[in-house]
């Protein structure tokens, strides 16, 4: 599970098969004092190796690449036995639902389209580095409608026992997060402090083996903890 952003700059690995695209991303990101680009890769296989060697905080990942595509590379990078791997932020030209859903199931912490602004990219890197999932606003409704649809995907049986371990308060927090509530909004509803909410969210993610809030939203809908319109 990706944790809070480090005390130093957010360390980013750029992965895209186009050199000019990588150069553009580097220019955008390195202007920021709190972001450092630590490496570049032109294919998914190289990205997996560099992620293991450099231990970045965030991997900025393209989808369509030679040798190994970005979705397969994301799956290998996030399948970290220590649970301490980098967050993967998918950034693609292709506005395709199959890419979006495959990326989220592979463990990506964010999904953005390349037609966004430089400010969108910088903020997305910071958000996923903090351990918070992010999806482009234009895609959010499609994600919820797909994962929330009854029978859209069978729940992972490995999560059944973990779900039973959630306390009533943790299930309550998960339900609120799944409906899009921020930590501050959850705190207001439950009449507790934000620090308490953060603790609950961290425990929920740890118990369920989830990386971030995006994965928690998907989990909550797939397992019936919340339902569309509920």
UniProtKB/TrEMBL annotation:
The modification 4-aspartylphosphate is found at residue 62. Transmembrane segments: none annotated. The keyword Transcription applies. SMART domains: HTH_LUXR (SM00421), REC (SM00448). The keyword Phosphoprotein applies. Residues 159-224 form the HTH luxR-type domain. One of its GO terms (biological process) is phosphorelay signal transduction system. Residues 11-129 form the Response regulatory domain. Keywords: DNA-binding, Phosphoprotein, Transcription, Transcription regulation. One of its GO terms (molecular function) is DNA binding. InterPro entries: CheY-like_superfamily, NreC/VraR/RcsB-like_REC, Sig_transdc_resp-reg_C-effctor, Sig_transdc_resp-reg_receiver, Tscrpt_reg_LuxR_C, WalR-like. This is Two component transcriptional regulator, LuxR family. It comes from Micromonospora sediminicola.
